[in-house]
Amino acid sequence: MQALTLAIGKPGIKFFTEKVTKDLTSNLKSIKPEDAEIPIPDFTATGIGFSNHYTEFKVKLSKGEMKDFNPELDDIIQEADGTFAIKLSAKNFGIKFRWDEYYKVMNCGQKGCGPNMPMKREDVKYEPRYDKLTATIKTKFEYQSASNTYDLKVIDTTVVPEGLKPNIPKESAVQMQKWGLISGGVNERTVKAATKIDFKKLLTNEVKTLLQSIPASGNLTADIKYDFGLGDDKITFPNNNGIQIGVLGRVTYKGTEYPQPKPNKVPLPTVADPEHLHVYVSDYEVDALHWAYWKSGLLNKSLKPQDLHPNEYVLKCKTYENVIGFKPYANAGYVMHADIDPQDWPRTKFQEVWIFTGTVVASLKTSLPTNTHSTLDGWVGDAYVDVADLEKTVAEAKLTQYLSKIKEASKAPGMAVKSDLKFTLTVQTGQNPLPNLVFQVKRDDVLQGLQLGVTNDQKVQTLQYKFTAAKFKADFLSTTIPKFNAKGFGETVWPVSGETKYREILEKMGKVGAPIPIMKDFKFLFSSANLSIQQEYVAIRANVQYKQ
């Protein structure tokens, strides 16, 4: 299964690495170098008339901290099979240690040698400096199926310090070595202290937290969850020039999977450039959202007259006192309650639709006679999912001679939504059973206004959309009201009561939207994202921002 795919190119990889390493380098500034114990080989310091023999000499370095350490990202290089080399460097920095030294010394002069005396110097400041440090961190991007998480595994780290200035403490007995050279291991161990900076641990912790947050970005609610595990195409690295990922997109409600056949496999997008990433989303993701809302009862609605303000009259029986069978209820002043009960979830389908936006109508005006313009203006905002309905509208407007131009101008790839509802009106007589009227309402919508957004709790980033009503039809099914004449009744009541409120329900659902996989602290740049409907998916081209 593969209901969603994404591709990240060089701009996106670089952006991600820059932002992550920025946090990483901030953490590196406070890193604590490892303690070290340095054995110093025995040595003798000589002068005119004396010699001092140093034995059992050792230096302990502790409480290390970095000074002026400001590593920066130099480059990110994509290599074979998903391997990435991250290159960092830092210039002119130091490592501050506490220096404690312990040794024995035998002082010899013209009169002979004294005893071998134990000596110590403690809590001495020691700060070697380095001209430069370069680090190359080899990483591999992969998916951990056992934990259903993405990961960036560090496979090798190379750290090279240059230009050591040892700055041996002046008060240290090590300064007594001949020529003032620190050949007894201090230099070597000081260099080694710099190479032991644990880039691997820091990078692993930093990135793992981000990558492991991807699955959670599919948790729309506690009950509605999108599975962003690997899809059929898994992870590929086309020409070692980006990342393409096939994503399952499986949807569950309270642990039950969306019960429809698996969708056609969504193709992998081209590698993003100049955008950070490209995403393709199947209609399966949108349809499954509608199913989950239907299962949860969020598409149902009960209405009382006060819910329709200022149109309360629609549910007052006296409004229909002239309708056969309704007069007793009208005379008694009864009201009705309305219940909207979807018989199925709103089914989504990619297909050709005909939409009359302001731009489409303006374009038609340039090619159709001026006596048609007022009619065209009245079509702004209309949408059709069945060409037969459009043809009927054009014929009724006596514009059939322009049908081909009208169809061509308004035609667009779109997402059609079909809803099947039961609409029940119950007269509140206080008697059991309450009299009722039942209608079947079938309505068509077109999804428009595609955009990226975030849920109200600011936790999930989603593909959001709006509904444009194409048509509806309310057919009478049954009633318990004797001699009731249902002709035209549904077409009178539904538009003012049920249609308005049901559309509000759909709009709320579209405003929540279907989740898109993304890492914690990264957010799509909603305003600049480009979304378009293709043959079998929604295509998204977007940039992201970090911790904004």
Could you give a quick summary of the protein structure above?
By secondary structure, this protein is of the alpha+beta class.
Rg from Cα: 37 Å
Count of extended strands: 27
Q: Helix- and strand-based class?
A: alpha+beta
Provide mean pLDDT, rounded.
87
Proportion in β-strands: 35-45%
Query: Please, how many helices?
Result: 10
Helix content: 10-25%
Based on the structure, what is the oligomeric state of the protein chains?
single chain
Major β-sheet annotation: 8 strands, antiparallel
The domain tally reads: 3
Give the overall shape, derived from the CA principal axes. Answer: elongated
Low-confidence stretches: 179-184
The termini sit apart by 34 Å
Would you give an account of this structure?
- With 548 residues, this protein is of the alpha+beta class.
- It folds into 3 domains: 32-197, Super Roll (Bactericidal permeability-increasing protein, domain 1); 212-291 and 517-546, no CATH class; 300-344 and 346-512, no CATH class.
- The chain is 22% helix and 43% strand.
- The protein has 10 helices and 27 strands.
- The protein has helices at residues 10-29, 186-195, 199-211, 283-296, 327-332, 358-365, 373-378, 387-396, 403-410, 489-512; strands at 4-8, 36-40, 43-47, 50-67, 72-78, 83-109, 112-126, 129-144, 149-165, 224-227, 230-236, 243-247, 250-253, 256-257, 277-282, 301-303, 336-342, 347-355, 383-384, 411-427, 436-454, 461-479, 514-515, 522-524, 530-533, 537-542, 544-546.
- Strands 2, 3, 4, 5, 6, 7, 8 and 9 form an 8-stranded antiparallel sheet that branches.
- Strand 3 and strand 4 form a beta hairpin.
- Helix 1 crosses helix 3 and helix 6 (358-365) packs antiparallel against helix 9 (403-410).
- The longest helix is centred in the last third of the chain and has 24 residues, at 489-512.
